[in-house]
Design a protein that fits this description.
It is a single chain. The protein has 16 helices and 8 strands. Helix content is 57%, strand content 12%. The chain folds into 3 domains: 2-139, P-loop containing nucleotide triphosphate hydrolases (Rossmann fold), CATH 3.40.50.300; 144-208, Helicase, Ruva Protein, domain 3; 211-331, Zinc Finger, Delta Prime, domain 3 (Up-down Bundle). The chain has a 6-stranded parallel sheet with strand order 1-6-2-5-4-3, with helices on both faces. A two-stranded parallel ribbon has the order 7-8. With 340 residues, the protein is an alpha/beta fold. The termini are far apart. The longest helix has 23 residues, at 243-265. It has helices at 8-13, 28-44, 63-68, 90-102, 125-133, 144-157, 164-174, 178-192, 199-208, 213-223, 226-238, 243-265, 270-276, 284-293, 296-313, 321-331; strands at 2-3, 20-25, 47-54, 77-84, 108-114, 135-139, 160-162, 195-197. Strand 3, helix 3 (63-68) and strand 4 form a beta-alpha-beta unit. It is globular.
Length: 340
């Protein structure tokens, strides 16, 4: 059975839990909230033991059946919490999962969390075996109206609300990062309590956080201001800003510009293309400057080098990620700082 993320709560309230859950996607905040809800429902249903497996160098697929079919000393129901960051069980794992689904152990709930599954994975024997007996929840990044609806619901949990312009502003600040969205809504609640949030309150809260210097960086990228870019980057590094957050801000702007160019190539005029990509009115002039300055080839180069920075940040490739991040930023201005 397949469920949409928003259907999960209603399913769990039915009190009839599936023996297997597979939650897949690249949006960590939604993944965390869904899996937390499943674990909580399982605990309330008497699944009091929990075993956690992570697909790393010490992991063995033989551990799954060994734990699943063992008898607990206290005869408690148990949850097997399995994390597969590679989004693929491999040949051995596929066999183990298929066998598991064909002979489900009693009083055991298997919760599998993976990255985004490839389309080919949905046609494999192991996935189809799992789908026959369990629940598959595919998480997608939220955009446009879906993102604003999520923000409004999140605000309502705290007794807060915002008009459409305020939601657009908040969405523009955190798009692609729901964890940051959840944190900022909590901050807004602390600052203002329950009630209506006008755009001034949202702008003030955003400006009050040094974390949002990445948005000052984003505006400088669009404006193509090399001096300001260099100054902000130095400040972010000195203040201990996480390099992945900076990379996220950079690639978000590049991808947005690429999408606008694609929409324009498809026949839309510039204003319509910006509207489709939810560009806030006060940013349209900056976005227009960047579109006039950056070619499609330049944007592609920015994204290619961003992949290099990502590998450096993760330790998968030698190099100084901050130097590479500065190189990417200066490409927005058509200046190359160092040869890569």
């Amino acid at each position: 059975m397949r469920l949409k993320p928003e259907q999960t709560a209603q399913h769990l309230q039915s009190k009839k839990l599936a023996p297997v859950y597979l939650v897949s996607g690249d949006e960590p905040q939604q993944i965390a909230e869904i899996t937390d809800a499943i674990r909580k429902a399982a605990q309330e249903a008497g699944y009091l033991e929990r075993e956690i497996f992570s697909q790393d160098s010490s992991f063995s697929w033989n551990d799954l059946p060994a734990v699943a079919y063992s008898t607990s000393l206290f005869a408690d129901r148990k949850v097997i919490d399995m994390r597969l960051p590679s989004a693929s069980p491999g040949t051995e794992g596929a066999k183990v999962l298929t066998a598991y689904c064909e002979r489900l152990p009693e009083d055991t709930l298997l919760l599998i969390t993976t990255g985004k599954l490839a389309a080919a994975s949905l046609k494999t024997r192991w996935f189809q075996a799992l789908e026959r007996v369990g629940v598959f929840i595919q998480v997608w990044p939220l955009e446009g109206e879906d993102l604003r609806r999520w923000l409004q619901q999140r605000l309502q949990r705290r007794g807060m609300s915002a008009d459409n312009e305020g939601l657009k502003l908040l969405a523009a600040r955190i798009e692609g990062n729901l964890l940051a969205a959840a944190q900022e809504i909590e901050k807004l609640y602390i600052l203002h309590g329950a009630g209506f949030l006008d755009t001034a309150k949202i702008v003030d809260a955003v400006a009050d956080s040094s974390r949002y210097d990445v948005f000052k960086l984003a505006d400088s990228l669009l404006a193509g201001n090399p001096g300001r870019i260099t100054k902000i980057m130095a400040g972010l590094k000195d203040e201990g800003m996480a390099a992945p957050v900076v990379l996220w801000a950079i690639t978000r702007e590049a991808r947005t510009l690429c999408k606008i160019r694609q929409d324009m190539a498809g026949g839309k005029n510039r204003d319509a293309a910006m509207q489709t990509q939810q560009i806030w009115d006060k940013r349209k002039a900056l976005v227009a400057q960047a579109l006039d300055r950056l070619t499609e080839a330049a944007l592609h180069r920015i994204l290619v080098i961003s992949a290099k920075a990502d590998r450096e940040i993760k330790g998968q490739q030698p190099g100084d990620p901050w130097q590479t991040l500065l190189q990417i930023c200066l490409l927005f201005t058509s200046i190359t700082a160092v040869k890569l």
